[in-house]
Amino acid sequence: MPIEPDLGRLLYKISQAYYEEGLTQKEVGERFGLSRIKISRLLQQARDLQVVQITLNPPDPVHSEMERNLEEKYRLDEAIIVTPDSYESDEIKRAIGPAAVECLLRNLEKTDSVAVTWGSTVAAVVNALPVESWPDVYVVQCLGGIAGLDSPANTIDVTRRMAEKLGAKPLILPAPGLVSSRELRDALIEDATISEVLASAARCDVAVVGIGVPTLDGILGEQNVLDESAVARLRNNGAVGDICLRFYDADGLPVEDELNDRIIGLTLDQIKDIRRVIGVAGGEYKVDAIRVALTGGLVDVLVTDDLAARRLLDS
Length: 315
Hints:
- There is one protein chain.
- Strand 3, helix 7 and strand 4 (169-171) form a beta-alpha-beta unit.
- This protein has helices spanning 5-20, 25-32, 36-48, 61-74, 89-107, 120-128, 155-166, 182-189, 192-202, 219-222, 228-236, 268-272, 287-295, 306-314; strands at 78-82, 113-116, 138-141, 169-171, 206-210, 241-243, 246-248, 276-280, 301-305.
- It is 46% helix and 12% strand.
- It folds into 2 domains: 5-48, Winged helix-like DNA-binding domain superfamily/Winged helix DNA-binding domain (Arc Repressor Mutant, subunit A), CATH 1.10.10.10; 61-314, Rossmann fold.
- Helix 1 (5-20) crosses helix 3, helix 2 packs across helix 3 and helix 5 packs across helix 6 (120-128).
- The strands form 2 sheets. The protein has a 7-stranded parallel beta sheet with strand order 1-9-8-5-2-3-4, sandwiched between helices.
- By secondary structure, it is an alpha/beta fold.
- The model has no long low-confidence stretch (mean pLDDT 91).
């Protein structure tokens, strides 16, 4: 359908002022004697009538297409894919760190709270953080102490270091992440400080979480968090992965296991309720755990490596 000459001229002029000259909609309106709302409608009309045609030039066409495909396939808010120098575990984590930092910082608002879990990939995110100033932001530990105190993946260390780098306030959960019995867990979470930190973690705006697998080959074995019999039992109960030490099955549902009764930390449902959950994980051996975390809606954003991304798209 042809455009009337006068309308076409107006659409072209306001589009030129907005897109080429960089004027705001208010400034365009002042130039042409129109309200900002009218300018907004005319700009949309210019796009509808193809007076304006927007072309995007992705910085990395291959990754951009894979990211979009992941977002569509798994209904993610965002997928971020990196290419590590090699596919050794440490190199994958080192590549994921800076990409996750960029995502975290642009998702932060000045009074937000950030929940953090544990693990070597989350620690790599903290390592990549620049020094910032977010004095009204809280960094909240959402799982009690896990891993040795000398480990950079320890939940307390991760929380403190993230808060220090962000110039934010840390909220430390003063309890172990895994205790010997349900009775001890119940007694500890009755403590006012512990219950308040857990409640604060559940109210966080953003979470940075690792995605684990039920095996002793990784950090669970390195830090003696679980023994061989516990891992075997979890697998027999259908566990394929975990977030915050909460194991889930092939449907993304919590695995029924006595371990749950001994954990001091957020549940999977509480983590899902956080507005933006950024999952950081890579490596082929984690693909099944990552895929279920995505199909189960456990994370909103995924930062991973390109090889794992291809496996996720192929599966």
